[in-house]
Specification:
- The chain is mostly beta strands and 374 residues long.
- The chain has three domains: 19-118, Quinohemoprotein amine dehydrogenase alpha subunit, domain 2 (Lipocalin); 142-232 and 363-367, no CATH class; 239-361, no CATH class.
- It is 14% helix and 41% strand.
- The protein contains five helices and 21 strands.
- It has helices spanning 19-25, 173-181, 214-228, 282-293, 341-349; strands at residues 27-35, 37-49, 52-59, 66-68, 71-75, 78-83, 88-94, 100-107, 110-118, 142-149, 158-162, 165-172, 188-189, 199-206, 232-247, 255-256, 266-267, 274-280, 298-300, 308-313, 351-367.
- The protein has a nine-stranded antiparallel sheet.
Length: 374
Amino acid sequence: MKTVLRCLVVLFVMSFAGTADAQSLTGNWQGTLQAGKDLRIVIVISGADAAGLKAVLYSIDQGGQGVPASSVTLQGSALRMAFPGIGVTFDGSMGADGNSVAGTFTQGGKPLPMTLARATPDTAWAIPAPPKPMAADAPAVFEVATIKPSIPDRPGKLFTVKGRQVITINTTLNDLITFAYGLHARQITGGQPWMETDKYDVTGQPEAQGIPSERQLRAMIQSLLADRFKLAFHRETRELPAYVIVVASGGHKLTKNDSNPNGLPGLFFRGLGVLPVTNATLTDFAGVMQTAVLDRPVVDKTGLQGRYDFTIRWTPDESQFAGLGVRVPPASGDPDAPPGLFTAFQEQLGLKLESTRAAVEVLVVDRVEKPSEN
C-alpha cells in the first residue's frame, strides 16, 4: 500500500461522547504501520471539554505534515477516528490499562493492523517540524531543471513536490500547460501533434528556499515552458461543451479548512474513484476533475470561497480518467460499489455537476519547440 500524507497541521473540532473517557484519551499515541515498509504513525489527541476532542495524525517517516481528523468517537472501549483528507479510518479497542489501542488502519479500502501505545516523555517519537513556505516575494523560477523522455508505455502521471524538488512523471507538454495555466486539454489549440503524445519527466529545484505555494509552483512551470519549450501563445474566449459545479439545493457538505490559505492543496487519488481533498479551493478541485477525470473543461460556479477538506468516492465509467492515461475496467456489478460520479457529487458533497456549454478561456499556441537539452 502506498500511503501518502501531504497536508499541513490543523486542529479540527471532533464529535465525542463521554467527558471522562475523553480525558483518558488525550496525549500522544504512536504505532508502526507495516505498509511495504515500516511507517511510524503518531496521533496527537487533545481537548476534553464540551467542544469535544481534537486530533492530528502524523506519518513521521514521510515528513512533518499533520492530517486532521473529522471525527473521533469513543463508545465503551471502541475507538473510531476518521481522517478524510487522506481517506483513512482507524478502528480500535482500548486495552484495559488505558495505555494501548489495538486496531485497524484502513486507507483506500486496504485494512492493515496497527496497535497504538500511549507515549511517555521517554518513549515519544519526535514529530518533524513542518516544512517552511517559500517567501511570498521569492523569485518563482527554477535554479536548475532537468527534462528527460519518460519510460515508454509507463501508465499514469504525477505532479508532486518532494522536499525542495518539483517533480512531474510521464507528462506531455499539454499536461504541463494545463497545470501551469489551469486549463483542460480542449482549451489548448494551434499546437503540434507531439505536444499531446511525447511524454517527459521533469525535476526542478527552485532558486528560493522553502515550499512553494500553488501560485509560485504554477509560475515556475510557466517560466520553464517559456525557457525550455519556447512556448508563446495568446488567449481567446470561446464557447465550449463544459461541466459546471454548483451547490445543490440542500447546501454543501464540505468542511472548511482555514489552516494555511497560501499552502499547496492536497489532491491525490487513492485509486480510481477515490479522491481525498485537503486545503483546496473549489477551483483547485474543478482543475483536477477536468485534467484527470472528465473529458471537457470544468468550471466552478459554486460561489464558495476559501479552502475545504473532503473525500469523494465513486464508481468511474469508461469515459473517465483518460487524462491519467488509464483505461477504466468495466463495472463489476457489485451492489455495494459507490455510486456514479454525478450521484456522488450530490450525495457526498452537496454539489451538482451539470453538463452545459460555457464561455471558457482558450490558449492559442503561436510558437513551441521540443525541449532544449539539459
